[in-house]
Specification:
alpha/beta; Rossmann fold; eight-stranded mixed sheet
Length: 267
């Protein structure tokens, strides 16, 4: 397997396909990089280099006891990018992965980044607070932790149905897709997926977002037919050519992502 070793000794698995402009993918909770295989295959076949890693404690990465927070996730992403010496990267993050991308930029800057794509991402913050009165009550996440601890296998089976919206009358979600979600989820360590709930729900990314100085596409997906998107075009001096290249790449990436997504996962 292809792996790198983080500073604390954690082994991070990654896949690296294709040649061309680089796009990295950060997955949602509690999955792993396999969740991006459809998009990665398409892009690798169409002139892009695509890289995705399993978050620490998930998939084929080692189940570290510590670092299961956004700082740890961002530093692991940085370790992959630096180990492979990736430059002019388009960072794509879904849900928790969007938080990972935001914290990466907050901690490591944009010297290697051409742009970012945040899809149904957790920033700026998910949980309800005085500063975020429209957020979800902490009891929602306490319930996730309780269900995960009591019977994670059944929890993941139930969660897969909600994840894909398979309980809607018009939904056409195969049993294979639901089983696939369960399999990916069960590959995550219990402590790692448990700790990650706090990371994706309670982390405040406000200060990280202020450090975005590259074009950023942020999209919330309700269904494959409905999308609200916001594009930020912030060009650094002397880099307008790279920013234009990003706009083309992001448009291609997001259009394909949206046609393949069944519904909006919440994590």
């Amino acid at each position: 397997m292809s792996t790198i070793t983080a500073k604390d000794g954690t082994t991070i698995y990654y896949k690296d396909w294709g040649q061309g402009p680089v796009i990295t993918f950060s997955h949602g909770w509690p999955l792993n990089s396999d969740a991006w295989d459809g998009q990665m295959l398409f892009l690798a076949q169409n002139g892009f280099r695509v890289v995705a890693h399993d978050r620490r404690g998930h998939g084929r990465s080692s189940q570290a006891s510590s670092g299961n927070d956004m700082n740890g996730y961002a530093d692991d992403l940085a370790a992959v990018i630096e180990s492979l010496d990736l430059n002019d990267v388009t960072l794509v993050g879904h849900s928790t992965g969007g938080g990972e991308v935001a914290r990466y930029i907050g901690r490591h800057g944009t010297k290697r980044v051409a742009g970012a794509v945040l899809i149904a991402a957790v920033p700026p913050i998910v949980v309800k607070t005085a500063a975020n009165p429209e957020g979800l009550p902490i009891e929602v996440f306490d319930g996730l932790r309780s269900s995960l601890f009591k019977d994670r296998s059944q929890f993941y089976k139930d969660f897969a149905v909600m994840f894909y919206g398979a309980n809607r009358p018009e939904a056409k979600v195969s049993q294979g897709m639901l089983d696939q979600f369960w399999l990916w989820s069960m590959q995550a360590g219990l402590k790692n997926s448990y700790d990650s709930i706090k990371a994706f729900s309670e982390t405040d990314f406000t200060e990280d977002l202020k450090k975005f100085d590259v074009p950023t596409w942020s999209c919330t997906v309700r269904t494959t037919r409905s999308c609200r998107s916001k594009i930020q075009r912030r060009n650094r001096p002397g880099s307008s050519r790279e920013r234009r290249k990003f706009t083309i790449r992001a448009g291609l990436t997001v259009s394909r992502l949206l046609t393949r997504m069944k519904s909006t996962p919440t994590c």
